[in-house]
Write a structure and sequence with these properties.
The complex is a heterodimer of chains A (87) and B (416). Chain A has 87 residues and is α+β, with helices and mostly antiparallel strands. Chain A has 2 helices and 6 strands. Chain A has a 4-stranded antiparallel sheet. In chain A, strands 1-2 form a two-stranded antiparallel sheet. Chain B has 416 residues and is of the alpha/beta class. Chain B has 2 domains: 206 residues, 3-Layer(bba) Sandwich (FAD/NAD(P)-binding domain), CATH 3.50.50; 156 residues, D-Amino Acid Oxidase, Chain A, domain 2 (2-Layer Sandwich). In chain B, helix 3 packs across helix 9. In chain B, strand 14 and strand 15 form a beta hairpin. Chain B is 29% helix and 27% strand. At the A-B interface, strand 3 and helix 1 of A face helix 7, strand 12 and strand 15 of B.
Chain lengths: 87, 416
């Protein structure tokens, strides 16, 4: 499996560290944040198919990446900087 | 048919004409008391104990492919009960006790071999942690022995004891641990269940649940609708997909775990050995092949196929532990779909949906749990209350904070 880092180009998966489902962190300042946090921390859609996930390019440019990948075939459809996406 | 020497001799005299199939390949009937989804070790063991221990033989086991075609046929066959936490250790020790009587109970040769499981330690801190774990095991009725380097050297002289970075200082040994023949476990449970009236239905994929006022009253399958009073899920890596059919989201990620076997060599490794400074474990099969594995690949996957960096990492662990295997050729590698829970421990509980029960989250350690998983899931399905040794495996523990995190890694399944 290779991930095409937007900064470094296509690199071996061994250079990357996985951080799971790229679901956004819930708003912490609301009064009823317990349920949304429980769901965000512990529950997963865990789809067989397209999955948006976070990878860290630890052995390269050290960027956090948002990768869309098929969990059945390991085919990668798109890679963006996670920071750009959340802004 | 009962398997015995007398019966074998009798059949031999008749030219082996009267042997029956080991178990009955059934067609679905319209309705059962209990349906188990998943014809792996856990599902078949559940059906067996439902019929045998709880007198409920009107049970169907539905399997998408053929029985034992998932993780039951892909694991590294290790059985052990060397856990630390009180939520885990009594359960795994009950499993170990069931393994010890399994072949007599099933009247089937599962090749249970108590050849010992040795976890090596490489530092003073690791020794202290292992001593603590050994004491926890003994408190739960298991056996444990803390060995020093000299004792390990007598057992396994070929290890790299004086490795510059990770010298071997000793190990925690469970002599009652060992290996079992994975396929035979599946076939033995299938035979025991089938003999007691359980229907084992293959090539029958569950595509939806039949609901009545919120309650599950059966399943929709590729072989038609089947009604049931209760439905139990034992589908390992497919748990999230099947639970999604009932609108449930689970605290589970599916990952790929690879395993490896080498060409056959003469007897070399007497039991199961694990490397304490990386993640590598190895045993030798009765055919002579070295069976080994290590970490999961570490990303969500339904591919049943891993990638090369993990192959390299596992083999490096092997070389650091026992350089003597360096010229042995790897024969095969394969991948299985493991249901990694968010704290590394299993889930066995009722779900919020009435009539639907869950047995999942076995991570990469489900094989050793097969007998007790079946025993306790049958107890839960039959009596609607958890078995005492599995009472901590609640589905709501993630919400209430009662996690069972053996490794203390937090909600990061690829680190468990």
């Amino acid at each position: 499996m290779r991930i095409e880092c937007p900064f470094c180009g296509p690199r071996d998966v061994g250079e990357f560290a996985y951080h799971g489902d790229a679901t956004r962190r819930p708003e912490a300042s609301t009064s009823d944040a317990t349920q949304p946090f429980y769901q965000a921390v512990y529950l997963r859609d865990n789809p067989a198919g397209r999955h948006k996930e976070l990878w860290y390019h630890a052995g390269g440019c050290r960027s956090w990446l948002s990768v869309t990948r098929d969990t059945r075939t390991h085919e990668i459809f798109g890679v963006t900087f996670a920071a750009e996406e959340s802004s | 048919m009962h398997y015995s020497f007398l019966n074998l001799a009798r059949q031999a005299l008749r030219g082996h004409r009267d042997w029956q199939p080991t178990w009955r390949d059934a067609a679905p009937r319209p309705r059962y008391d209990i349906i188990i989804v998943g014809g792996g070790g856990h599902g078949l063991a559940t059906a067996y104990y439902l019929a045998k221990e709880h007198g409920i033989p009107n049970v169907a086991v539905l399997e998408k492919g053929y029985i034992g075609s998932g993780n039951a046929g892909r694991n590294t066959t290790i059985v052990r009960s060397n856990y630390l936490l009180p939520g885990n250790e009594p359960f795994y020790e009950w499993s170990m006790k069931l393994w010890e009587g399994l072949e007599q109970d099933l009247n089937y040769n599962a090749m249970v071999s108590q050849r010992g499981v040795l976890n090596l330690y490489h530092s003073d801190a690791q020794r202290d942690a292992f001593a603590r774990r050994g004491n926890a095991m003994i408190l739960a009725g298991a056996d444990a022995e803390l060995l020093d380097a000299a004792a390990v050297r007598r057992m396994l002289p070929m290890l790299d004891f004086d490795n510059a970075r990770f010298p071997i200082k000793g190990g925690l040994l469970q002599r009652r641990g060992g290996t079992a023949r994975h396929d035979a476990v599946v076939w033995g449970y299938a035979r025991g269940a089938s003999d007691r009236g359980v229907d084992i239905i293959q090539n029958c994929e569950v595509t939806g649940f039949l609901r009545e006022g919120g309650r599950v009253v059966g399943v929709q399958t590729t072989r038609g609708r089947i009604g049931a009073t209760k439905v139990g899920l034992a589908v390992a890596g497919s748990s999230s997909r099947v639970a999604a059919l009932a609108d449930l989201r689970l605290p589970i990620e599916s990952h790929v775990l690879q395993a490896f076997v080498s060409e056959a060599i003469k007897p070399f490794i007497p039991g199961v050995v694990t490397f304490g400074a990386g993640h590598f474990y190895i045993s030798q099969s009765d055919k002579g092949g070295l069976v080994f594995g290590g970490d999961i690949d570490g990303y969500n996957s339904y591919a049943q196929r891993g990638n090369l960096p993990t192959v390299e990492d596992v083999c490096e662990g092997g070389m650091a532990l026992m350089p003597a295997i360096g010229r042995v050729r790897m024969l095969r590698s394969w991948g299985g779909l493991v249901d990694m829970s968010m704290d590394g421990s299993p889930i066995m509980d009722k779900t919020p949906v009435d009539g639907l029960y869950l047995n999942a989250g076995w991570c990469y350690g489900g094989f050793k749990a097969t007998p007790a998983s079946g025993w306790c899931f049958a107890h839960l399905l039959a009596r609607d209350e958890p078995h005492p040794v599995a009472a901590a495996y609640r589905l709501d523990r993630f919400e209430t904070g009662h996690l069972i995190d053996e490794k203390g890694q937090g909600a990061q399944p690829n680190l468990h």
